[in-house]
Structure formats: C-alpha cells, structure tokens
Amino acid sequence: MENNNYFTEMMRSPMPREKERNATDVYIDKLLNDILFKQEKQRIMVAIDQTLDKGDREAFMKLSHKLNELERNFNS
Fold first, then answer.
1. 26: Cα within 13 Å, side-chain hemisphere
2. At residue 56, what are phi and psi to the nearest 5 degrees?
3. pLDDT tens across 3-41, in order?
4. Degrees (nearest 5) of the Cα angle 40, 57, 46?
5. How many angstroms separate the CA atoms of 29 and 74, rounded?
6. Distance CA 76, CA 62 (A)
7. What does the alpha-carbon distance between residue 25 and residue 42 come to, in Å, rounded to a whole number?
8. Residue 53 pLDDT exceeds 70
C-alpha cells in the first residue's frame, strides 16, 4: 500500500515534469542558437564572396573578422 501512495505522490509532484521541461527548454535553446548561427554565418559568407568579386579588401577584412568572432563566440 505504501508503494501505491508513493507513486501517487510522485505523479502529483511537479518536479519530474519540471526537469523534463527544463531539458526540453535547453534543447530548444541549443537548436535555435544553432539555426541562428548557421543563418548569420551564411549571410556573412555571401557578403564575403561579394566583396571578393568586387575586390574590396577592406570590406573583406571586416567581414572575415566578423565571421571569426561569430565562430569563436558560438564555439565557446
């Protein structure tokens, strides 16, 4: 009988669901950050290609630095 009461109390307890929700939130945050990183990286790479086509060394250097910063921040 005690086991049944314990199970009932555990089902009422928000803690297991809260942990599950927190794990889901962490996963969603990671997924969204990954998507945002990939989109920003792609945007910068397209801009870098355009600056190379134009021969704009200064813009290329700025964008390359921005890309390196983005990758460094994402990987840390």
1. 6
2. -90, 90
3. 556 556 655 666 566 677 788 899 999 999 999 999 999
4. 25
5. 13
6. 21
7. 26
8. yes
- Check if the beta carbon of residue 26 is closer than 8 Å to that of residue 55: no
Q: What count of residues does the chain have?
A: 76
- 57-72 in b/e form (b: 16+ CB < 10 A) is eeebeebeeebeeeee
What is the rounded CA–CA span in Å between residue 17 and residue 34? 26
Q: Which two tokens stand for residue 33?
A: 């950050």
**Residue written as tokens 């009461």?**
5
Asked which of 8-12, 29-33, 47-51, 64-68 is least confident by mean pLDDT, the reply is 8-12
Residue 35 carries which side chain, given as an amino acid letter? I
Distance CA 4, CA 27 (A): 33
